Amino acid sequence: GRSYLYGASPALHGEEMGAGECRLPPSSSCHVSNVTAVLMSHATNRLVTLTLGLKGIASWSMVGEIILVWNSDRSLLENDKNGQRLLYWHNLSTHPLRIFFSLENGLPNCLLNRYHPMIQPKYEALMYFDDDGPFFSEAAMSTVGFELWRRNSDVQVGCFPRNIRFNSKRMLEAEKEMTLRSIQQAVGSQGIGAEMQEEVGGKVGDGQKQPEFIPTCRTTEGEKLTNNYNTFPHFAAHFILPSGSFLHRNYLCFIFHPALEELRRYVLDHPTKPDDITMSSLVSQLSGKAPRVFPRRINEQKQEAE
Questions:
Q1: Lowest mean pLDDT among 65-69, 75-79, 147-151, 289-293
Q2: Cis bond leading into 233, ω under 30°?
Q3: Cα 92 from Cα 192, distance rounded (Å)
Q4: Dihedral over alpha carbons 6, 7, 12, 13 (to 10 degrees)
Q5: Contact status, residue 93 vs residue 62, Cβ threshold 8 Å
Q6: In this structure, what is the dihedral angle of CA atoms 2, 186, 230, 41, given to the nearest 10 degrees?
Q7: How far apart are CA 236 and CA 232, in angstroms?
């Protein structure tokens, strides 16, 4: 795959990579059978929900490791009932939980810490949840979400999609065109039959154009963007919220690449700390592909006895 070099900063883990090298993940990772679950918190008022969610995740067969990124002093956990429970699991060799203490590793309290290479996840597949959930079922995350990621490991895969609302005819038409190109790209890369490929206008490799980002023109066209936070548009998603999402470990190296220092500073300085939009957009920019979305609710029908 493509790789990018920078200075002497250590690459994630360093396996098959030189010092300071970031490498894009493969388009599929069907050999991967375990995931590292990553959660992050900084205050004790969410530890009840976090502990319950973490207890459930620890029982999932695909979860080989859990990393809790703790963005406050260790003493807060030591003086809290649920915090003490987390520390007990952390020190228990048979439990998958490992707590990463950000402040003790020289990092500030920052939402981007859950994407920092210093957390050193063991597995290629990273599964993210917010500390207040929602925590989706094992069936949705394992049978559907993880399987979708294994076949599309170079993109972000999630079940909490959002999109940006466009207010001009030009942008709405461009959105339709880019959605079609993304479908063509997905159909071609998955080796889907010729009949389906013809239905969406052929493969990208057959002369179809790559999907592109849609520019806005506020000054001359009066175009505005608004964040659609009222619905979950599975078929026109622009970015994915962290809870219930999957990401390849290799992207951690890119997020903290020196070239993106200005982008990280923007996230830290912005009043809303838009790490979710930034992260999702960055992965799409690097991969040249749209995120993949899966349903977060699975209705399992019982088979009637014959």
A1: 289-293
A2: no
A3: 46
A4: 130
A5: no
A6: -40
A7: 9
Query: Considering only CA atoms, which of 7, 256, 264, 21 is closest in space to residue 118?
Result: 256
Q: Which residue has the tokens 């505005």?
A: 224
Q: Are 71 and 40 in contact (CB under 8 A)?
A: yes
Query: CA–CA separation, 126 vs 250, rounded Å?
Result: 10
pLDDT 10s digits, 81-123: 999 999 999 999 999 999 999 999 999 999 999 999 999 999 9
Say how many C-beta atoms besides its own lie within 10 A of residue 278's C-beta. Answer: 21
3-state secondary structure 226-284: EEECCCCCCCCCCEECCCCEEEECCHHHHHCCHHHHHHHHHHHHCCCCCHHHHHHHHHH
